[in-house]
From TrEMBL, chain A:
InterPro entries: Phos_transporter (IPR001204). This is Phosphate transporter. It is a multi-pass membrane protein. One of its GO terms (cellular component) is membrane. It comes from Haloferax marinum. GO terms for biological process: phosphate ion transmembrane transport. Belongs to the inorganic phosphate transporter (PiT) (TC 2.A.20) family.
TrEMBL record, chain B:
This is Universal stress protein. Gene3D superfamilies: 3.40.50.12370. Transmembrane segments: none annotated. Residues 8-141, 152-271 form the UspA domain. Belongs to the universal stress protein A family.
Length: 401, 291
């Protein structure tokens, strides 16, 4: 009987996790390529195809850190049982479904984090205050940093005294430099870490290159990536500014889609970490593959429709301000992945679009709508803790666990 | 609900380039019976996951609603009426149109409906369903794409119910502007067809508008839908009440009108009276949905 209940829960949890990943893939992956479609740099169907592949790759190679935080970093002292994992997922999914159905802003990251904290406390675990502090700080910093970076980028791109043959390659070099440093599970680590970046790999292989505390190899590889990116895009912009910008939009869209997958998958797979890895003894990649498949199919089925709707909006925002919104989106998503902070990609992009939009001068934001949105985010977080806590109590009592 | 010679405008909600003019024309016909004003609105939908939704409404209308302006530009002014154009911002098309109804207090709302939306269990797609259920004014749902090319004859099938007067009003409005006739059509199933037809004629006579030639036909048949569909072939426009019965909330549109729409290629306009929407429950729902 106990075994039957366990396997039913494993099945239910797996299906829910897959469905959540599907929903994330369908709903939150349109921004990366929407500007490129709006600029006619790529067709909608091709973009949707690429988004699915890239987001799934991102999920596979970068999803581990946030998944781990969600699965084991939010609560101390207890491990999530199959019932707890299922309850946490169901709670989070119910909140997201409520958001999709009613049209209220319900960020997946807040719903999942809240649900897992609620269930964990209900299990008898201790709150991991240090983790909460880090997550809360990060969340609070996202709007000003993302918005601010987007504003500055948009201002830079709008300046007449800086030609686009300089500004666009400059942004490309920043993106390239970061790409050298993003940690991927497929890059072998000389120091034995689970994930490693290209720069880290070189530096780990050549450890003697550290002078006065400065890791020369990392700096060199980063610079190399930056310079190569600069040169590639600069050549394209010199041939034709329009072509260069379009190329950059596609490259930028690709790395953002990749990052989006890496930062979103953990919200669907995190709750199952303990169940899959400790109880079933499966390697981490199995769980991430489940999430990646969900994101892939969600993106392929849902993204074309959303892309058509959103690409027009980005087209009206204009190429410069769209780039300005995406660059910080990429930086912050990668930072969140590096720090293992669950984050809704949509929240990052909103701030970026606002920042880029305000740089135009004539746009204004609605305080009422911002207040309402922020209020709903906080409400989502609070309510998901309460519901997760209560629901686990209920299930545990009913099933006599 | 509809005052004779109402000074209220006729509201028309548009969301697709293909049928703006068809709907505006119907709204123009209706407006000519009343205040002579048509207000064309379209909703710039900003869903909760759109990063653009937090801009102020003015910014969205000015900078992020190109397709909406394109729609409104497509509307040409029908003869004899004045036209107002407006872009609204909302989370969904239904929400936006309901807000417009509340703000405008129109004589009637005209919306289009395209039959291929069969993905959901909604009768006419979620937007039109929500409007049928909640819009507190006379509502006309026009099946778009089948625009009558010159109107000589309008079929008004009647079977009692709360929407007869609303349907009659549209029949008169369209007939008056096209020099067309109206045929009141009733199918004999339980012996009251003659009375129902008389009720239909009365409703037509009650509309405060120009004189329109009216004829009556009562047909004996077991197959109501089939009889109406057959008759419709001889007419250009079919105007029907949405249901026979009252405001049963779960039953948005009766089965006969629904089947007629599927089986005829004529222009079909379903009429739903504003009188069936209201009451304390509706008010409560409205308050709850305000956000």
């Amino acid at each position: 009987m106990v075994a039957v209940v366990f396997w039913v829960l494993v099945g239910l949890a797996t299906v829910t996790s897959f469905a959540t990943a599907w929903a994330l893939g369908a709903n939150s992956n349109s921004p990366p390529f929407a500007p490129a479609i709006g600029a006619n740099a790529i067709s909608t169907m091709r973009a949707a195809f690429l988004i699915g592949i890239l987001a799934a790759l991102g999920a596979l190679t970068q999803g581990g850190s946030i998944s781990e935080t969600v699965g084991s970093g939010l609560i101390d002292g207890v491990a999530f049982t199959s019932l707890a994992a299922t309850t946490g997922l169901l709670t989070a999914t119910a909140f997201m479904a409520f958001g999709v159905y009613t049209g209220y802003p319900v960020p997946a990251a807040f719903a999942t984090t809240g649900a897992m904290v609620g269930v964990g406390l209900s299990l008898g675990g201790d709150p991991a205050f240090e983790t909460y502090r880090r997550i809360a700080t990060f969340w609070a910093l996202v709007p000003p940093v993302s918005g601010g970076l987007a504003y500055l980028t948009a201002k830079l791109l709008r300046r007449d005294d800086i030609p686009e043959t300089v500004a666009i390659p400059l942004l490309a070099s920043i993106v390239g430099g970061i790409v050298a440093n993003i940690e991927l599970s497929i890059v072998p680590s000389p120091t034995g870490a689970a994930q490693e970046s290209v720069a880290g790999f070189v530096s780990g292989t050549l450890p003697f290159l550290t002078v006065a505390g400065v890791d020369i190899a990392t700096v060199a590889v980063t610079l190399l990536f930056a310079i190569v990116s600069f040169q590639l895009i600069r050549r394209r912009t010199q041939v034709s500014v329009d072509k260069g910008i379009k190329t950059f939009l596609i490259v930028l869209g690709s790395v953002v889609a990749f990052s989006s997958g890496g930062s979103q998958v953990g919200l669907a797979t995190g709750p199952l970490e303990n169940l899959y890895r400790a109880e079933l003894g499966l390697p981490a990649i199995v769980l991430l593959a489940l999430g990646a498949t969900g994101i892939l199919s969600g993106a392929w089925m849902g993204a074309p429709r959303l892309l058509q709707a959103t690409s027009r909006e980005y087209a009206q925002l204009g190429i410069r301000r769209s780039i300005a919104a995406l660059v910080p989106g990429f930086i912050i998503a990668q930072l969140a992945i590096a720090l293992g902070i669950p984050i809704s990609f949509n929240n990052i992009i909103i701030s970026g679009v606002i920042g880029g939009g305000l740089a135009g001068g004539s746009s204004s934001i609605s305080r009422r709508k911002i207040g309402f949105t922020l209020g709903f985010w906080v409400l989502t977080l609070g309510m998901s803790i309460v519901v997760g806590f209560g629901l686990y109590r209920l299930f545990a009592t009913v099933l006599g666990a | 609900m509809h005052n004779p010679r109402s000074d209220k405008p006729v509201l028309v909600g548009v969301e697709s380039l293909d049928n703006v003019q068809q709907l505006v024309r119907t709204a123009g016909d209706l407006a000519d019976l009343g205040a002579g004003t048509v207000r064309v609105v379209t909703v710039a939908v900003k869903r909760s996951d759109s990063p653009f939704r937090v801009f102020s409404d003015e910014t969205i209308v000015r900078e992020f609603a190109d397709s909406s302006h394109e729609l409104l530009d497509r509307a040409t002014t029908p003869e004899g009426v004045t036209i107002e154009r407006d872009v609204l911002v909302a989370r969904s098309a239904a929400r936006g149109l309901l807000a417009a109804v509340e703000e405008t207090d129109p004589a009637a709302l005209v919306v289009g409906w395209r039959p291929q939306e069969q993905r959901t269990d909604a009768v006419f797609g979620t937007t039109v369903d929500a409007l049928v259920e909640r819009a507190p004014c006379d509502l006309y749902v026009e099946r778009v794409g089948h625009e009558a090319n010159g109107v000589d004859s309008i079929l008004l099938p009647v079977a009692g119910g709360p929407h007869v007067e609303t349907a009659a009003r549209a029949a008169i409005a369209i007939a008056a502007r096209n020099d067309a006739r109206v045929l009141v059509f009733s199918v004999e199933t339980s012996g009251d067809a003659a009375a129902l037809a008389a009720e239909g004629r009365e409703a037509l006579a009650g509309v405060d508008g120009p004189e329109v030639p009216v004829e009556t036909t009562v047909r004996e048949s077991d197959d109501v839908t089939g009889a109406i569909v057959d008759e419709a072939a001889a007419h250009d426009v079919v105007v029907m009440g949405a249901t026979r019965k009252g405001s049963l909330r779960r039953k948005l549109v009766g089965s006969v009108p629904r089947r007629v729409v599927d089986q005829t290629d004529r222009t079909v306009i379903l009429a739903r009276s504003g009188d069936v929407v209201g009451g304390p429950l509706h008010e409560l729902g409205r308050l709850l949905r305000r956000w």
